[in-house]
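Postdoc handover notes: sequence design on the structure in folder B. Input tokens:
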């Protein structure tokens, strides 16, 4: 089993890149984990739906049919860190399939990605830019793994 994070866009900021690398290294010491960056080739400034469709098609091209897909959606349920770790633990134990998390572009996902998603979660009702939510995801995913493995990183 492997975990994947698919994100639209690059970080582009050295400070965020350093923080992301820190958490990515920590995660990879505990589990098989891969980050896949989706970079749209075309710029559709005047047509948001075409941009969403292109990003969504690129995302779907990176997902296998047997993988569990979880999209980050600000309209979904917002779990606590412990609830998020239990969610990952249960998927890992009972499904035994690769688990793919997806952070979409600033315009969101199209219907095809939403329909493909097995689960939707939110990290906040607030909106964050893709650099911040990527970092928040990596930190919370690392935190979830440490909760599962009884590592002292998480305090309650």
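Designed sequence:
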């Amino acid at each position: 089993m492997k975990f994947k994070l698919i994100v639209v866009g690059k970080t582009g900021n050295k400070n965020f890149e350093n923080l992301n690398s820190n958490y990515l290294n920590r995660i990879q010491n505990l589990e098989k984990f891969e980050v896949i960056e989706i970079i749209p080739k075309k710029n559709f400034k005047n047509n948001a739906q075409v941009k969403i469709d292109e990003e969504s098609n690129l995302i779907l091209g990176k997902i296998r049919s047997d993988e569990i897909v979880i999209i980050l959606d600000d309209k979904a349920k917002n779990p606590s860190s412990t609830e998020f770790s239990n969610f990952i633990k249960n998927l890992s134990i009972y499904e035994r399939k690769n688990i793919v998390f997806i952070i979409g572009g600033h315009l969101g996902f199209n219907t095809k990605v939403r329909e493909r998603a097995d689960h939707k979660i939110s990290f906040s009702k607030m909106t964050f830019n893709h650099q911040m939510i990527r970092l928040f995801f990596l930190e919370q995913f690392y935190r979830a793994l440490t909760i599962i493995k009884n590592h002292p990183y998480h305090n309650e």
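Context for whoever picks this up: Helices lie at 14-28, 48-60, 81-94, 111-116, 130-148. Don't rerun without checking with the PI first.
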